[in-house]
Design brief:
Structural class of chain A: mainly alpha
Oligomer: heterodimer
Number of strands of chain A: 2
Largest interface: A-B, 16 and 13 residues
Number of helices of chain B: 2
Strand content of chain B: under 5%
Distance between the termini of chain A: 58 Å
Strand content of chain A: under 5%
Helix content of chain B: over 70%
Order of helices and strands of chain B: HH
Helix content of chain A: 55-70%
Order of helices and strands of chain A: EEHHHHHHH
Strand order of the largest sheet of chain A: 1-2
Largest sheet of chain A: 2 strands, antiparallel
Radius of gyration of chain A: 20 Å
């Protein structure tokens, strides 16, 4: 099992005596890609003759707005940047495993747990902002709501981590057993599940926020 | 005596992992099939909402899939990071 353990996250270097994992380094890479891309694209957007990359960005943004309309009943303008960032970040993070020298940071349980804690925090933030602190916190008198909050957060983290880690393990195991052509099929499957899991994470965040703010769909 | 206990531990772990994976995947696949069958029926009955149904279908399938992933996670932990393995010095 010498080569299979290469997929597990390992400590890369130390900063001031604190061990830093390679998944953190890859997360920085994704952050830099998104920030640099946004900064570069910002000055080059135009309304006449848009270039293909601008159309792609607009399509993605319109898709997120469509998601919030479908699941929220109305377009919630504060939530859209959060959902769009989560979708883009997690999709790029999961697909980073396809690049030869890099690994997906979400195969580390800590990265998935951090993302789902962000979801939990944003649910509380939007719930308190919309309904006021007392009314929102009063629902936690029932201990079952507290359990459901914890279990929803845990299941989101485990779902993302399990999908990506299981994909990596399958590819590594098949690669150790069979000549190099067979893992290409599993890599294709990994690409599909990466994007779908990113979408599921973003949609679940949106649904939890909509539940917390108590938005009623106009019907 | 030590190696006999180690053999027993390994065999029981392997059998349990095999049985639980089988049960986990069968349940997940059956329930996903039922969801997809119902979704297809309703998409054919009302083509105007077919896009909405398709959007929700993928999300629901991923959520159902995640229960099978939980089973897989526990089996991976039992195989690769077994907390009782250091009893035998593994």
């Amino acid at each position: 099992m010498g080569a299979i353990t290469d997929i597990f996250p390992k400590t890369e270097f130390l900063i001031l005596g604190i061990p830093v994992r390679d998944s953190i380094v890859h997360s920085w890479i994704i952050t830099m890609i998104l920030l640099a891309g946004a900064a570069w694209a910002r000055k080059r957007l135009r309304t006449w003759e848009p270039r293909p990359w601008q159309l792609a960005i607009e399509y993605f943004y319109a898709y997120v707005i469509g998601l919030t309309r479908d699941y929220g009943g109305r377009a919630l303008p504060e939530v859209i940047p959060l959902i769009a960032t989560m979708l883009a970040y997690i999709a790029i993070a999961n697909l980073l495993g396809m690049v030869p020298m890099l690994q997906a940071p979400t195969r580390d349980i800590n990265v998935s747990a951090a993302l789902s804690v962000v979801t939990l925090g944003s649910v509380w933030y939007f719930g308190i902002k919309e309904r006021g602190a007392v009314r929102y916190l009063r629902q936690f008198i029932n201990p079952l709501s507290l359990v459901s909050e914890v279990s929803r957060t845990l299941s989101m983290a485990l779902r993302l981590f399990g999908n990506i880690m299981a994909g990596e393990l399958i590819v590594a195991t098949v690669f150790a057993l069979v000549p190099p052509v067979a893992p290409i099929l599993f890599n294709a499957l990994t690409m599909i599940t990466s994007v779908i899991q990113a979408l599921v994470f973003a949609v679940l965040t949106l649904v939890f926020i909509v539940n917390a703010t108590g938005v009623q769909s106009p019907s | 005596m030590q190696s006999e206990q180690l053999l027993q531990f390994s065999v029981v772990t392997t059998i349990v992992v095999g049985v639980s994976i089988v049960l986990g995947t069968i349940t997940a696949a059956l329930m996903e099939g039922r969801a997809v069958a119902k979704a297809f029926d309703d998409m054919a009955r009302q083509p105007s909402v077919a896009d909405q149904i398709r959007g929700l279908l993928f999300v629901v399938l991923a959520i159902l899939e995640s229960t099978a992933i939980y089973v897989l996670l526990i089996c991976l932990i039992l195989l690769f990071a077994n907390p009782f393995a250091n009893v035998f010095g593994l």
